[in-house]
Design a protein that fits this description.
Layout lengths: L5 H15 L18 H9 L1
InterPro entries: Aminotransferase-like
Protein name: Branched chain amino acid aminotransferase
GO molecular function, one term: transaminase activity
């Protein structure tokens, strides 16, 4: 029928849940990435 089975559905839910926050990252796979602070770089350029 071309439909995913119940096991595939559970695997996909767990996998995609890592990215939308519905699955706890028990294995430490994710690293938080924070936006770069360009304030100091812009200030340095402005002072030149």
């Amino acid at each position: 029928e071309g439909k995913r089975g119940p096991i595939t559905e559970k695997v996909q839910a767990a996998y995609f849940g890592l990215f939308n926050g519905t699955t706890e990252d028990k294995w430490g796979w994710l690293d938080y990435v924070y936006p770069a602070d360009h304030t100091s770089a812009n200030q340095t350029q402005a002072n030149q």
